[in-house]
Automatic annotation (TrEMBL):
UniProt-listed Gene3D superfamilies: HRDC domain, P-loop containing nucleotide triphosphate hydrolases, Winged helix-like DNA-binding domain superfamily/Winged helix DNA-binding domain
Species the sequence originates in: Fusicatenibacter faecihominis
GO CC terms: bacterial nucleoid; cytoplasm; replisome
PANTHER family given in the database record: ATP-DEPENDENT DNA HELICASE Q1, DNA HELICASE RECQ FAMILY MEMBER
Domain Helicase ATP-binding, residue spans: 24-193
Cofactor: Zn(2+); Mg(2+)
GO terms for MF: 3'-5' DNA helicase activity; ATP binding; DNA binding; four-way junction helicase activity; hydrolase activity; metal ion binding
Keywords associated with the record: ATP-binding, DNA damage, DNA recombination, DNA repair, DNA-binding, Helicase, Hydrolase, Isomerase, Metal-binding, Nucleotide-binding, Zinc
Name of this chain's protein: DNA helicase RecQ
EC number: 5.6.2.4
């Protein structure tokens, strides 16, 4: 059979998507392969199709039991002999599966990375012909990636122990340069065929808003988008409950998903959403892995997520069908605090030493910072996202809230000078809140306790509202006039550029022009 015939026979598709063919050909010609494609691009077929055409067995390493189950079920339904080996199996089931594996009953076998170096698995592996080891979610091998999993480091050890080196292929949706290099280096890919497909999703409109009342903003949005399917992501279970209650209380067709619900209820709610019995899904980030619903018209982030990887993955669940869809992020300063709290509480993953755990935490803080900058940038949001993922493009997409907003440049030099001056003259380093409160002349007790009411810049920006001071301070951070440390309690520090402003340099900042409220025209009824 040709690869096209396999595609048609087992998967029912007529043609490969851009990129898939290159990767499939790479593997079939015996080359190692690295595929970097956004979620939904169709990575699975890239290894499943060669797996069916190669003589031996393909092992797929995957981090999540639920993903393995879904994939194997789908393959079995397509008439392909596949199985998984992970901790969800009883000892008896595991032994049976291993026996079947050795007898050559499977073509594709999903394995949890923890299993690879166990005696029983190594022995089984020595009895069979392994044509390919395919690493799904390959970013898990990198300490630079989110979801670093130390057990992924077992993969290269495992490959090394095989008598014949199989083709090694790796796939991920995380494309930052560090991660890409880590994957190739740690897995020991040999001159891999590497393919990065476009991360841009042109049909998605991105916007960031800072509503004073998120609930009201959410309700308003939903009311303006009747009969459309959407996902609302919240940071905590508690917020999911609140938003869900508010929606259901007002008669919207909504359901919810988070780790606090029983398996049964989660499954039911998920199906209600997938099969269009409920229009709106309110969920934590626990929702969405492996879900393929094409007609999601909007994804609202009720809270800012912890990093750009999560954001783009979650927002990217909108508009899988290619039709215009919206990704709205509601930012508030509290979101940063909540995320910081999560990072502080992060526990070392199994097998991770203290040093590594601290490093991972530090990188999480860096990523949170970049996520926060996304909420404050005045440039094209799409350009910001693509640059984050290592792609370069235009700085104007015409389809994001920044490209669609008229900005006016305002001179904020005076306020900037006061903020920087305050940081410089403080006796020690403080966080953003305290500095903002100081120049604003607030009378809170912590400020007085540390003597910041005596600071020469105390009250110098009395007139500016706090939110505005925060905006300007964020602008200073984005532009590198101040630096926010990655510590547990991040503090502000001067940079080389700070003096420029103190010495009378001008700083312009783009601010959204107040637009006269347009009266929305009602669509005529069809
Ligand atoms: P990823 O792993 O990259 O997130 P999947 O492998 O889950 O993406 O594929 C996403 C969806 O695209 C699936 O429903 C899959 O069946 C579909 N798909 C993949 N390749 C093709 C193709 N060549 N033609 C049509 N649909 C495809
Ligand atoms: Zn844009």
């Amino acid at each position: 059979m040709t690869k096209e015939e396999v595609l048609k026979k087992y998967f029912g598709y007529d043609s490969f998507r851009a990129g898939q063919e290159i990767l499939v050909n790479g593997i079939l010609s015996g080359r190692d392969t690295l595929g970097i494609m956004p979620t939904g691009a169709g990575k699975s077929l890239c290894y499943q199709i060669p797996a069916l055409l190669m003589p031996g067995i393909t092992l797929v390493i995957s981090p999540l039991i639920s993903l393995m189950k879904d994939q194997v079920t789908a393959l079995n339904q397509a008439g392909i002999h596949a199985a998984y080996l992970n901790s969800s199996l009883t000892q008896g089931q595991y032994q049976t599966a291993l026996r079947n594996l050795i007898q050559g009953r499977y073509k594709i076998v999903y394995v949890a990375p923890e299993r690879l170096l166990t005696e029983s698995f190594l022995w089984a592996a020595s009895q069979i012909e392994i044509s390919m080891v395919s690493v799904d979610e390959a970013h898990c091998i990198s300490q630079w990636g989110q979801d670093f999993r130390p057990s992924y480091l077992k993969i290269p050890d495992f490959v090394e122990q095989l008598q014949v080196r199989p083709v090694v292929s790796a796939f991920t949706a995380t494309a930052t340069a560090e991660v890409r290099e880590d994957i190739a280096a740690i897995l020991g890919l040999q001159d891999p065929v590497t393919l990065v497909t476009g991360f841009d999703r042109k049909n998605l409109r991105f916007s960031v808003k800072q509503p004073a009342d998120k609930m009201a903003a959410t309700l308003a949005y939903i009311m303006e988008h009747p009969d459309e399917c959407g996902i609302i992501y919240c940071l905590t279970r508690k917020t999911v409950e609140e938003v869900h209650n508010a929606l259901v209380g007002r008669g919207f067709s909504a359901t919810r998903y988070h780790a606090g619900l029983s398996d049964e209820e989660r499954r039911e709610n998920q199906e209600d959403f997938i099969f269009d019995r409920k229009e709106i899904m309110v969920a934590t980030n626990a929702f969405g892995m492996g879900i393929d619903k094409s007609n999601v018209r909007y994804v609202i982030h009720y809270n800012m997520p912890k990093n750009m990887e999560s954001y783009y993955q979650e927002a990217g669940r909108a508009g899988r069908d290619g039709l215009p869809s919206e990704c709205v992020l509601f930012y508030s300063g509290q979101d940063v605090v909540t995320n910081q709290f999560f990072i502080d509480r992060m526990e070392a993953a199994e097998g991770m030493d203290e040093e590594t755990a601290a490093l991972v935490q530090e990188r999480e803080r860096e990523r949170l910072k970049k996520m926060t900058f996304y909420c404050f940038t005045n440039e094209c949001l799409r350009a910001y996202i693509l640059r984050y993922f290592g792609e370069y493009g235009d700085n104007y997409c015409g389809n994001c809230s920044n490209c669609l907003t008229q900005f006016e440049e305002k001179d904020v030099s005076e306020t900037a000078k006061n903020l920087i001056g305050c940081v410089k003259t403080a006796r020690r380093s403080y966080g953003m809140t305290l500095i903002v409160d100081t120049v604003h002349g607030s009378k809170n007790s912590r400020l007085i306790q540390v003597g910041m009411d005596q600071n020469p810049y105390y009250g110098t920006c009395e007139e500016e509202p706090i939110y505005r001071l925060r905006q300007i301070l964020n602008h200073l951070l984005v532009e590198g006039y101040l630096f926010l440390t990655d510590d547990k309690y991040p503090v502000l520090e001067l940079t080389e550029k700070s003096e420029e402003i103190l010495n009378g340099g001008t700083l312009l900042m783009k601010t959204a022009k107040e637009q006269p409220k347009k009266i929305k025209e009602k669509k005529p009824k069809k």
